[in-house]
Structures are given as C-alpha cells and as structure tokens.
Amino acid sequence: MNNWFKKHERLITIIVIAGFLAGIVWWSVATYVSSRNPATTSQNRDTLRKEDSVLVITKDGIDLDYPYWIMKSEVDNITQQQAQIYQQYYGQQLDPIFDYLTLDNQVVDLLFDEKIVRYYAEQNDLLPSKEEVNNQINTQVDQYISQYKSDESNWDNMLQYYGSEQNIRNILISSLQQTVETDLINSAVKDAVAPTSREDALAYIEQNFESIKNDYEEVRVQHILLSDEATANNLKEEIETGEITFEDAASLYSKDTSNATNSGEIGWIKHGQYEKSFEDAAFNGQVGEIIGPVQTSEGFHLIRVLDKKIFEHPEDVFLYDDVYAQVRNTVQDQKYDNWLSNYKESENFGRNYYDTKLMYMYELTKAGTDVERLEELAKELESIVFEGNEISMEVDSDYLAVYTMVVSQLMGLYNEQTTSINQYLSLSEFVDPDIVSLGLDAINDKLEELNAQSTTDVSTSLSGEISKYQDAQSYLSSKEALEALGVSTTEDASVMRAELQTKSQDYTEKLKKVLADLYAQYPSSNTVVQLYYQLNPQDPKVKVSYSKLQLDQLKQYASYLGSQYLFSYFQQQITEILVNVQTVVDATQAATDTKLEALDVGLDLTDLLGLKEIKLSYLETIKKIDPNYYTNIDSMIESVQKEIEEASNSSTDTSQIATQSNIQ
C-alpha cells in the first residue's frame, strides 16, 4: 500500500467528489471539507496552537506562522478519507498499525510541499483572488450538477437525501474551496517556475522516443476471426473482389461475437494489448488494406486498419495535440519537481515536529540504507519502547510499530551484508586469481563474449570457463561492496560477519517482544501476524492466525481461478496450513480453544478443496476434544462418511464399467 497514495494522489479529489455525488460514498464530501479546512473544525484560526500541529514549517531555523503549520486534525481527517477510498478502490482495509503510520507520513509530506508552494506564491504575488477562486468553483459546480442531472433517478435520490439543489451546490462549493484554491496556486507557480517550450518537449521526445512510441502509438482496426487459414483466404478473396463487404463478412462469419455485429471493429489498440503477430500486422498495415490471414492462439484473423497514430520521427508527435499535451505536461512536471526540490533546499525550509512518532517515520524514510543512522534511530526508540529488558507499560503502540519498521529495515541490510561476506569468503578459497586480476570490466566483457559463444557451443569446457568467470565476477562484486564498508581482508570479513550475527540475534529477541505485544493488541493486523510468525512460528496462536491469513488468500484466488486449480498453484501454502493445523492440535502447550480454532481453519480448507477424508478426521478430533463444540457433531460426521462412501461406490462402479469394456 505504501506507494498507493503517492501514485493516486491527483485522482483522490475526483474520486471523492464524483464518488460521493454518484451515490457511492454519501459521507465523503463532509469528511473532505473538514479534512482540507482545519480552520472550520472545532478549532478556529484564532485558537489554533502549535502544540496541536504535527509539525511547523521553519525557514532558516525559525518557525513560520499559520497557515504554515500542518495540523494533527488535518492529517487525521485526510488519512481517514484516503483509507476509505483505498477500501473502495481495492476492496481491502488498511493495516490498523503500519499502513496508517505510512499514510500519515505521506500525507504530511504532501501537505508540506503544498504549503511550501503556497509560501512561494505568497512571496511572489501569485495567490489567486477570491473572485478567481469563486469563478472556478462555480464553473466546476455547474459541470457537476449538469452531469448528475443526466441520471434522472440518481438525481431524484440526491434531491430526496439533501433536500434541494441549492443544498447540493452548497456542499460542492464547500468541498471544492480548498481544492480549487490549491490547484490555482499550483498552476500559477508551475507556469512561473517551469515554463515549457516546444523545444523542451522535442528534446524530451528525442531522448525517450521509443518509450513514447510504445505508450502513445495506436491503430484503429476491424477484424474477422476464423477457425482455419483456408477459410480465411477464401473470405479475403471474396471481400477483395467485392462479392461481400468486410462489415457483412464480420457479421456473418467472425467467431469473435463481441464485435461481429459492429463491423468487426475492435477500436483503437495500443502496443502490448494483443498477441505480437496481431499487433505487428495491425501497426505495419496501411489504412484500408486487408491484412492476413494472421494466426494467433485464437485462430486466423483478417484485419483492416481504419486509422493510425504512428510516429516515424520525433517531430510527428506534434501532429497530435492530445499526445503533445501529455508529453508537455510530463516535461513540465519534471521541471517543476526539480524546482521544488531545489527551492526547499536553497531557501532552507525545515520541519519542527510536534508529533514525535511521525518525526521518526520521516527520519526512517530519510535514512534509507544508511545503517549507522538506522542503528541510531533504533537506539533512540529503544529508550521509549523498553523499560529494562521488557516492553514499557506506557509505550504507545505506534512507537512499537515504528521500531518494528526501523529494525526490519536494518536487519534486511544486515542480511545483504552477510550474504556479500559469505559470498566473498567462500569464493576467495577457489576463485581463479588470474581471472580476478583482469578486473571487473574486463571480466564482464569476457562473459558477454562467452555467453554469445554458448548459443552455438554447448561443450563442457565452455560451460566450465563461463562458471570460472562468473565466480570471479561475483567475488569482485562482493569485494567491492565490502570495501565500501571498510572491509579489505578475509579476516576483517569474518569479524564483521560475527558482529552482524550478534546484532541480528539481539534485534531478533527484542523484535519478538515488540511483536508479541503488538499481536496481543492487534491480532487482526495482517502485517503483525506475518512478521511475528516469521520470528516465532512455534507460538500456537500466531500459527493459527497465520493459517487463517493464508486461507483467506486462497479463498480470494478460488473466487476467480476455481478451487480445482488451487492445488496446482498453491500446493506449498496448502501443505503449510495442513501442517500448522496438525502441529497446533498435537501441541501440548496449546490451549483447547486454540486447538479448536485451528481445526475450524482446517475444516474451512477441506471444504474449499473437497478433502473429505481429512475433513472427517478433523471432525472426529473436534468430537474428542470437545463433544459439545458443535451441537450436531454426530450428524456432521455421519454426513461426511456418507459422502466418502458414495464417492467410493461411484469410483468402484466406474472401474467395473471400464473393466467390462476392456474384456469385451
């Protein structure tokens, strides 16, 4: 989920407003109003306090006045709003711990940049007037109202719910106020700081011509799908001689019923949407030409190109206003992003956090792969999270989550370093020193030459030579990585490996305690369950929770794959669930409730997969553990036994018929 908000942030407002007024999310505008206008909440502008903010933006180390504060209520409301949209967009809820922290951090980043841009606009007299904002709002409201009135039934429902058209207009005006003002500011600043000329666009097109062709080229085609090549050739001849039109032929003979009655027209297609043979024929064909037969996995196609949008040269992009506009926007956005990054640095803007956990989230993001900084963050957080060797009774669960993220990132880097060390130490014992002496660049060139030779030469000697060069390549790569960490000898590498192992073990023990506490508070958190299961798979309760998680995933796949295919694709997960259920049932330390919960998971799985014998075993085990767990346990057992017996008899009957047939 981490990148979802950044990826879709420009669509958020559209989804919120349009979704609400389409009757999808009736609550969203009101939430959006409060989220984007903190001064309209219970706090008014005069009573806002820095202490109620997440952070205050600073310049040259000095706090700026409001509105250059990011209020906690503002962040909370926007985060809740985006969580609702995420649930609608993907049909899933955010993780109650980790996802909300990540989203809060992303919202703060977005608002920070938004307010920096506003600061520039204010300093350079680029703020829109009230009249400009109101005019733009009224224009958009008129467009929305016109759109919603086009669906008479939905419009009647809205009028009934909100009382009048004016009430709907008022809600829209309120919800659009902040958005329109921000958009006008961004647009004015973007035009001022990132003017984009035709020459700028052409330079970008020339540098990215192949990707632009792939993204924007398209052809409009008709096709007729036939079962064999001979029929396709005969029909093509009839069309070319005028015995039948392409349109009539599509209607009468095409196997593709989705468009046969529409003259066989598929519409505009882009690169990568169809099989390569079909795509190549369509993009290389001339307008009006009948192409084919072209074979695909579906059959044989006759294709006619109706129109084309093809770029032979970079300048051709300018022939299409829509494509040029998109390319120009891309170039301007890149220039604008670069300007904003430089402006924040050159003007010395900073962050004075009033929310410590979000400060740590920001520092975690900034740290990236800096091991030393991550270790510092972990140490700082340990003073908050732990009291002695145990979890502090006063610690907020958010700090446990931040600590988990910091340590997980740190241990991932430890694992990478350990892998490089192991590779370096193992290869140093037998790598060919003469090949190593050539250097990495020469080895890479030689490997490219040998790999090309291997396409025609499959001899054992060539394979052995390739292997030697690959070992030397891996050795030098790991050696370079370790030298960057100050390791230059095998002795140093061995010492560092031991240190990493000690650190990893220490963090693992601490993380177990943190995740155990989080699991006790949030057993519904999928992330907590997965992380805790990885560190402590012997805990019966987390074993059951993890199995439930896997089962839910299998059910999702079964909904569109069909349960009969689950064994083919998910055998490992299915086996793991079955093993986990049995180990929990057999575990002497597992509570009775936990065992029964595990057996319930097992029953769900056997129903999903049709494993009747295993289901019978689970039901019999449940009866032994608690005969009253299911009030109808005996009838359940009897029903499954009957199903197994009927399946066995059916199998016997089929076998007997086959045997008699063979005898005859």
From TrEMBL:
Domain PpiC: 216-307
Alphabetical UniProt keywords: Isomerase, Membrane, Rotamase, Transmembrane, Transmembrane helix
Database matches in Pfam families: Rotamase, SurA_N_3
GO MF entries: peptidyl-prolyl cis-trans isomerase activity
Spans through the membrane: 12-33
Top-level lineage group: Bacteria
Listed PANTHER family: PEPTIDYL-PROLYL CIS-TRANS ISOMERASE HP_0175-RELATED (PTHR47245:SF2), PEPTIDYLPROLYL ISOMERASE (PTHR47245)
Protein name per its UniProtKB record: PpiC domain-containing protein
